[in-house]
Structures are given as C-alpha cells and as structure tokens.
Amino acid sequence: MLKGSCLCGDVRFVVHTAAKGASMCHCPQCRKQSGGIWSSAYVPEADLEISGPVHWHESSATAKRGSCPRCASFLFWKAHDEDTISFALGAIDGPTGLRLEKHIFVAGKGDYYDIADGVVQHD
C-alpha cells in the first residue's frame, strides 16, 4: 500500500493495489503544470482512496487533472474514457518500490535536457 499527499497536506491519498505503468511524461501540458517532467503510475480508480479537496481541471477533451486547491500540487490525471487514474509518484510518502517503465510523449520534451537512462521511449 502506498500513501501520498500534496505539499500542504490538505489532500491525501492511499493506493490499495499494486501500481502499474510507472512513467515520466514529457508532454507540454505536464511540463507546464509541473515545471518539468511529471512522474506517475496508475491503478484502477476504485483502488485509489482520496481524502481532502481536489480541484479537477478539464485539461483537454479527453482528460482531467486533479490538484490541491490550496498549494496547487498536481496530483492526479484521469482519462474520461478509462477506469484507471494516474497519481504523482513524487507525492508518495517514502519509497514507492516501483521502477520506471517508460518515457511518454517524448516528442514534446524540452530541448534543455536529454533522456539518457535507457528506458523505453514513446513519441
């Protein structure tokens, strides 16, 4: 079981099952919202318990993003047509026990860094 929270602690979450798909997203939306690369994993939505206020923002026609309304920590990403939800790995309290599986949307990555860790990359 993984536990996490936002920076101020108003939003907390518990992951009740094994997380999958640990990835780093390099898309322009994640870069702008996080200030860099957004690292996440996903679980079935029913296996993620969220407590506290979450501000949901419709970030596109296909997905929404969840953040803390007080400290603005970007915590969740949810596709409208999927029953899974992604959560920020950086918000986990303590070790995750996960290993990075892939880099996604690398075609949109910033020009100020290279991806040189040998992990699979998807445009």
Automatic annotation (TrEMBL):
<dbReference type="InterPro" id="IPR011057">
    <property type="entry name" value="Mss4-like_sf"/>
</dbReference>
<dbReference type="Pfam" id="PF04828">
    <property type="entry name" value="GFA"/>
</dbReference>
<feature type="domain" description="CENP-V/GFA">
    <location>
        <begin position="2"/>
        <end position="114"/>
    </location>
</feature>
<protein>
    <submittedName>
        <fullName>Uncharacterized conserved protein</fullName>
    </submittedName>
</protein>
<dbReference type="GO" id="GO:0046872">
    <property type="term" value="F:metal ion binding"/>
</dbReference>
<dbReference type="InterPro" id="IPR006913">
    <property type="entry name" value="CENP-V/GFA"/>
</dbReference>
<dbReference type="GO" id="GO:0016846">
    <property type="term" value="F:carbon-sulfur lyase activity"/>
</dbReference>
<keyword id="KW-0456">Lyase</keyword>
<keyword id="KW-0479">Metal-binding</keyword>
<comment type="similarity">
    <text>Belongs to the Gfa family.</text>
</comment>
<keyword id="KW-0862">Zinc</keyword>
